[in-house]
Amino acid sequence: MPGTHNNSFYHEVKVMYFNASWGWISQTAVEVNKVLSASPVGPQLYNITSTVPAGTHYIQVGFNGNGDWIKTDAWCATATTPSCDPNDAGAYYGFCAPTPTCASGSFLWQQTINQSTGNPSIVRLISGSTNSYTISSGFPAAFGSNVNITVGDVVSWDGYSTRNTVTQPNERWRLVFKKSGSTVYSTPYTNDVPDYQKQGYWRGALGTTFNAPTGIDQVVIEHYDVANGNNGPGSVVPVSICLDYSAVTCNNVTTGGTIGYDETICGVSGDPANIVSLTAPTGGSGNLEYMWLVSYDGGSTSTVIAGASGASYDPGVITQTTWYRRCARRAGCSSWPGETNWIKKELSSCCDNVTTGGTIGYDESVCGVYLDPANIVNVTLPTGGTGNLEYVWLISYDGGTNTSVIAGATGASYDPGPISQTTWYRRCARRAGCSSYVGESNWIKKELTFCAPSFTCPSSNYSWTQTIDPATGNPSVVKLISGSTNSYTISSGFPAAMTSGAVVLQVTNVVSYDGYIGRNTVTQTNERWRLIFKKSGTTIYSTPYTTDVPDLLTQASWSGALGTSFTAPNGIDQIVIEHIDVANGYVGPGSVIPTGICISYQSCPTANAGNPAVLTCTTPSAVIGTAAVAGNTYSWAPSAGLSATNIAQPTATSNATTTYTVTVTSASGCTATSAVTITVNKTPPSADAGTDKTTNCINPSVVIGTPATPGTSNTYSWSPSAGLSSSSTAQPTANPAQTTTYTVTVTGTNGCTASDVVVVTVNKTPPTANAGPDKNLNCTTTSTTIGTAAVAGNSYSWSPASGLSSTSVAQPTANPSTTTTSIVTVTGSNGCTSTDAVIVNVNTTVPTADAGADKNLNCTTTSTTIGTAGVVGNSYSWSPATGLSSTTVAQPTANPSATTTYTLTVTNAGSGCIATDVVTVNVNTTPPTANAGPDKT
C-alpha cells in the first residue's frame, strides 16, 4: 500500500472489519508519514498485517488523521488461511481432528477429515445404521502369533456446521479384537464426544494391556449402541487408533518348586489346611502362572481344578483321601512343565483304643435239655482311649479254649438265646476307628444239667409241636428215620400273615429229641434235620441243618434257632421238615424227633427315603422321606445335619454331601430300608476386584475387577455404583469424582457369595498457574520476562505465540508490538491443567514534534520565538544551541547571527518515544547599499 500525505499533520490508514449487519467488529491501522519532496522521491510502501476476526462479513479501508489530504496509489491484499485448529470449537477455519500420537514401531490406523465438510475418508459410525467397521488387513506379522497389545491412543471426532445445536448422547465406541471369528479382548468404551460444538473430539488410551495367545486377525470398531440396543441419535468418527504391541516369547520354567504339607484328618470328612508354596518354580523368565491338579488315586489320574491359579491353594472340605499338585509356566508359554510334588490330604479312622475290657455278669446253671439263659449284662464298661465303644461277643463250648464270634452281637450286653449245651461267653471291646478288639471281659458260664427238654414259643409266633409218649418215647406225629420216613410236610394251620403278602420269617427255636431205652449204648450219626419253606411248590428258603442230637444218652435233645431271618415275597404255604440223608443220600442209622418249631413272622413295611436334593446357599435345606404311615416307626442315619432322626420326613441341612438311610419298622418289628443322597454345593465363588488403580486427567477412567471366571455363570455387583460404567459386570470402567473404595460381590449359581475391594485413587488436582504481574513496554523498554519460576513435572504453553521468545517455557521473554494479554496453560504430571493471564502493556505513542513555522530576523527584528506550546509529559531538546535562549523548553527565543536550521527533538516521558521537526530562522542583516552620490560642491 503506497501512500503519501501532507506531512504537516498526523495521518494513518486502516482496515476495518464489519459483521453481516455492518456492525463494527475491530480494525488495524498504520501511520503514513511520507513527504513527497523528501528523499527518496516517490511514494513509500507500507504494510498492514491483520487477522480477520471471527464473524467478519465485510472489510473496508479507511483513514484517520488531522491533515488536510491523504493519497494512496494502490492496494494489494493477500489472504492466508490459518492452520486448522482442532481445539477451535467454532471451526471457522475448517474442520479437523487432532494428529494421532503413535510411537515408531506401533500399528496405526487412521482416516482423514475433509476440512470443508467435516466428512471422514472411510467411515462414520451412526446409531441404527453403520454400527461397526472391521479392520482385517495391514497388521504387522507379530499379530499372527502370541502378542501383548496395548491401545495406547485413540482419537474420536465429530463435526459439521449445525453440530453446535445438536445433542448426541452416544458418541462412544470401543475396540473388539478377534481371532478366527472368536473375541480375544474387548476394550471399555471411549468417553462421549462433547456436544454443542461445531467440532469436538475425545482422545486417550483404552483398557489395559492384554495377551492374545494365538494373535489377532480382526479389529472391530464398534459403536456404543451395538451392545446396548440403543438406536437413538448418535454418530462418531474414529479418526485414529494406535496399538502398541510386543511379541511374547516363551522362556519356560525348568523346575516346579515344592508345596506342603501332607495331612491326616480323622473322620469321614474334613477341611484340611491350605497347601502352601514352599519353594517357587525356577528357570525361565517372565511372570509365573499356575494351575492345580486334583487326584483321588495318588496321581494316576488327575483333573484340573477350575479357577485355582495361585501359588498356594485352599482345598476346602473333602470327603475322601485326595492328592494335589501344582503346575507352573512362564507368561507367554503354553505348556506347564513345572510340576511339584504330590500333596496327600488323608481321611483316617484314627485309632485310640481301650486299655481294659470291663466286666460282665452273671453265671447261670439249670437242669434241662436246653436253657434260655438270662441276658448277660454290662457290669463295668471298658476304659481307656477315645471314641465310641464297639463290641463283639465270643462263644465257647469248652471253657474258652476254642471260640467263635457271635454274628450280630454288638451291644454292651447280650441275650444268648436258648442253648442246648453248657456254653461260655466273653465280650471284647475296641474304640471306633480301631481294628483290634483288645478289651476282653471275664468269661460267663451258662450251664445245662441232664433233664427232660421243654419247648417255648411266644404267643405272637407261629408254632408247630408234637408230644412224646413218656412210656415209649414215641412221637405223636412223626419220627424221621434214615432210609424210611425222611421228611414231613406241614401245609396247614398257618396264620394269614404267613401265607399272603411279604413277610419276614425266622426260625427262632426248634427242639430235636431222641430217646429210648438202650440209647446210651447206641451211636446214631445223622440225627439232624432242617426246614424247607415253600410257596406253590417253589422253595423260598432252606435253613441249615440242626446240630446232631447227642449220642449215648438215655434221652438227649438239641434246641436252638435255625438260620437267619428271610423274606417270603408272597408268603409260604408249606414247611417241609427234612432229615439230613435226604440231601446227602445217606441211609445209615439215624433217627430224630422234631418236637417243636417256633417261627417269628412280621409283615414288612415299605421304605422310601424320597428324592435326591441339592443344597446351596439359596436352598440350604430340604425335606427328605415320604409321608408317615400310622403304626410305623422311623430311624435315619447318619444323624448329622438332620432336624430329627425318628420322624418320617426330617429336614436335611448338611454341610457335606451325605447319603441318608431310613429304616422303617412296622408295629410287628419288621423293617425296610431306603437311601437318598443329599448333595451339598456351597463352595463360594472367587472374588477378585483387581489391583488398586489411579485416575487422572490423562487417564480419567480405569478398568477394575478381573475377567469373569470361565465356564461359570457368576453374577457381579459393585458398590457404590457412582462413577462406574456398570455395577453388574466383572470389569466395569471406573471414573469416580473422588477417591473411592469399590466392593465387588460375586454370587455363584449356587447362591454363595464372596467379596473383594479395590481402591481407585483420583488424582485430578490442577497445577498452579501464575502468569506473573502485568508488565509495561515502551520505546526504551522493548522486552520483559513474564510468568513465574517453573515447577518440576509441569509443562507450559503460552498463547498467543506472537511476540514471545518461546511458548513452552515457564518464563518466556515477551516483545509484543501492541498491548497483549498472554495466557499460560500449565499441565501437571497428572494431565490436569490450569490457566492464568498477564497483560503486557505496550506504550509506543510518538509525541508530536512541531518546531513551528520558519522565521525571519533582520536588523529591526533581531529575535523570535520558535517551536509550539509545550505538552505536559513531553521533554524538549533543540540543536544547535547557538543563538537560543534555552535548548530544553518548548518555545525558546532564537537570536542567531546567521540563518540557522534548528532541530527539535521531543521525548514522550511515558513511552520514551521521540519525534523531531526542524525550523529555519532566516537572518537578513545585510545592510542596504547607501550611496549618497559623489560629494558635491
Secondary structure topology:
Layout: E1 2-5, E2 11-18, E3 24-31, E4 44-45, E5 58-65, E6 70-72, E7 107-110, E8 125-126, E9 132-135, E10 147-159, E11 173-179, E12 182-186, E13 199-212, E14 218-223, H1 224-228, E15 235-247, E16 258-260, E17 263-266, E18 276-279, E19 288-295, E20 303-304, E21 322-330, E22 338-339, E23 343-348, E24 359-361, E25 364-367, E26 377-380, E27 389-396, E28 404-405, E29 423-431, E30 439-440, E31 444-449, E32 462-465, E33 480-481, E34 487-490, H2 496-499, E35 503-515, E36 529-535, E37 538-542, E38 555-568, E39 574-579, H3 580-584, E40 591-603, E41 613-615, E42 622-623, E43 633-637, E44 651-652, E45 658-665, E46 671-680, E47 693-696, E48 702-703, E49 715-719, E50 733-734, E51 740-747, E52 753-763, E53 775-778, E54 784-785, E55 795-799, E56 813-814, E57 820-827, E58 833-843, E59 855-858, E60 864-865, E61 874-879, E62 893-894, E63 900-908, E64 914-924
Parallel strand pairs: 17-23, 25-31, 41-46, 47-52, 53-58, 59-64
Antiparallel strand pairs: 1-4, 1-6, 2-3, 2-5, 7-15, 8-15, 9-14, 10-13, 10-15, 11-12, 11-14, 16-18, 19-20, 19-21, 21-22, 21-23, 24-26, 27-28, 27-29, 29-30, 29-31, 32-40, 33-40, 34-39, 35-38, 35-40, 36-37, 36-39, 42-44, 43-45, 45-46, 48-50, 49-51, 51-52, 54-56, 55-57, 57-58, 60-62, 61-63, 63-64
